[in-house]
Design a protein that fits this description.
The structure is a single chain. The protein is α+β, with helices and mostly antiparallel strands and 480 residues long. It has two domains: 180 residues, Chloramphenicol acetyltransferase-like domain (Chloramphenicol Acetyltransferase, 2-Layer Sandwich), CATH 3.30.559.10; 242 residues, 2-Layer Sandwich (Chloramphenicol Acetyltransferase), CATH 3.30.559. Helix content is 36%, strand content 22%. The protein has twelve helices and 15 strands. Helix 8 crosses helix 9. The longest helix is centred in the middle third of the chain and has 26 residues. The model has no long low-confidence stretch (mean pLDDT 88).
């Protein structure tokens, strides 16, 4: 039995009619070696049934609400767990192309998950050209973070087409406490909440300028510097006072989604890193800056200053695999305003270095502290109120989310079918922006997943083209 953390609960509380807090992945597989040349619902259901005990409890756990919303929900193993209830199959008109696949995934990504059962769904997409099969799987962010998603993939996938031997499931079903016990615990937490809230405020105050949007408020940097001095802390590099400028994708989002997928050669990205300095992540951020600059410039919407990107960071340690979401976010300028490619790369590298050094100083704990400021009975309605009110007031903490997730550099297999590519599909909100770019390195490639509000960015495939052009631009710099 475990309870949602404050960060887990925030992902639940943030959901509205237009915002869904599930994260997803799209795997493209070569199923031609399977019996009948296809992957079936029965195949995947049996795989999950056999492996649901291998570090992937969220696949078989459901939410249990505390009466009257007095406390955050609990997780318990679903006594009626049946993988078949979560697995569906659709087919594209043969031969299905990548654009049709992206459109189908966009429609699937628009649908919220059913909170009455374990918060995941898997869809087999048949009919792709070349005998390929796609697997779209989404899980609620309240149940899983990036590292846990990787652990789930590791449990389901194999290193060869032959499934590995598995340990026997000897775990006992976990059940939530009774209603009376949950209410008693909730009342006690509510009574003690002012003390916990005061402690959270004290922990957050020295790092207020790291909170997206807050650092741009005049005087905040001075307050954080004074707080750090009073606590005897060494002051980290100062946060730049940047505000997220208006862009076409920083407006209230609608219900529709648009998705695009692409890939970049990891070897070329590493060669750019070696030639120009920095890290693979610096190169990825610079590629995104150039692609976004081109996209905005073509529309006459290029801001005179940098965009502001949110970069998710895992806080998870080896002993915290069951501790809920362990994630924070760095805020960094994205130098879309600089016309010179070399200057743009240098600025992105310097800004990311400063953001990382500041993040290390605070350990990113402000996310959990802010999430816990309000008692559970108020957290849900106040979170939704804030998320709906901030965009109307013209507040833009971020322009978009850009995330880079390292993955295995060797091929993996699902039910004997080789995974050819894996594209992450993440979350968009009114506050974080109607555009999200997430990349996942796998088997010598960097697989790119872009999700956007369909009303604001109808064709995100254009950004994939711009990313390829940006790669050529950086490669040219290495030859100068």
């Amino acid at each position: 039995m475990s309870q949602l953390t404050t960060v887990d609960a925030t992902f639940l509380n943030a959901e509205t009619g237009t915002t869904h807090a599930h994260i997803a992945g799209l795997g493209v597989l070569d199923a031609t070696g399977r019996p009948g040349g296809r992957l079936t619902v029965a195949d995947v259901a049996q795989l999950i049934r056999d492996r649901a005990h291998l570090a992937i409890r969220p696949l078989r756990q459901r939410l249990v609400q505390v009466p009257f919303g007095l406390d955050r929900p609990y997780w318990e193993d679903d006594p009626n767990f049946a993988p078949e209830r979560h697995i569906f199959e659709i087919a594209l008109p043969v031969p299905g192309d990548d654009r049709q696949l992206a459109d189908a995934v966009a429609m699937l990504h628009e649908r919220p998950l059913d909170r009455s059962r374990p918060l995941w769904e898997l869809v087999l997409i048949q009919g792709l050209a070349g005998g390929r099969t796609a697997v779209y799987v989404k899980v609620h962010h309240a149940a899983i973070d990036g590292v846990m998603a990787a652990e789930t993939l590791a449990a389901l996938l194999d290193l060869s087409s032959e499934p590995r031997d598995l340990p026997v499931d000897e775990t006992s079903p976990q059940r939530a406490p009774g209603a009376g016990r949950m209410m008693g615990t909730g009342l006690l937490k509510t009574a003690l909440h002012p003390l916990r809230s005061a402690w959270s405020v004290a922990r957050t105050a020295p790092y207020l300028d790291e909170i997206p949007g807050v650092g741009a408020i005049p005087g905040v940097s001075r307050v954080t510097h004074l707080m750090q001095g009073a606590l005897g802390q060494q002051a980290p590099p100062p946060a730049p006072r940047v505000s997220a400028p208006p862009t076409p994708f920083n407006r209230p989002i609608g219900r529709g989604r648009a998705v695009a997928c692409g890939e970049l050669p990891l070897a070329e990205i590493k060669e750019i890193r070696r030639a120009l300095g920095g890290s693979v992540n610096d190169v990825v951020m610079a590629l995104c800056a150039t692609a976004l600059r081109t996209w905005l410039d073509k529309r006459g919407a290029l801001p005179s200053g940098p965009l502001v990107a949110g970069v998710p960071v895992s806080l998870r340690g080896g002993a915290e695999s069951d501790a809920g979401n362990q994630v924070s976010i760095m805020t960094a300028p994205l130098a879309t305003h600089l016309p010179d490619p070399a200057g743009r790369y240098a600025a992105v590298r310097a800004d990311m270095d400063r953001a990382k050094r500041r993040f290390v100083a605070s350990s990113g704990s402000w996310v959990a502290d802010v999430a816990g400021l309000l008692p559970a009975p108020l957290a849900g309605p106040m979170t939704r109120l804030a998320l709906s009110a901030l965009p109307g007031a013209g507040v833009r903490p971020l322009n978009l989310i850009v995330s880079n997730v390292p993955g295995p550099q060797f091929p993996l297999y699902l039910c004997g079918a080789k995974v050819l590519a894996y594209y992450p599909i993440s979350v968009i909100t009114d506050v974080s922006g109607g555009l999200n770019i997430t990349v996942f390195s796998y088997d010598g490639k960097v697989d790119v997943g872009v999700v956007a509000c369909r009303d604001l960015v109808p064709d995100p495939a254009e950004l994939i083209d711009h990313l390829n052009d940006a790669l050529d631009e950086l490669k040219a710099l290495t030859r100068d």
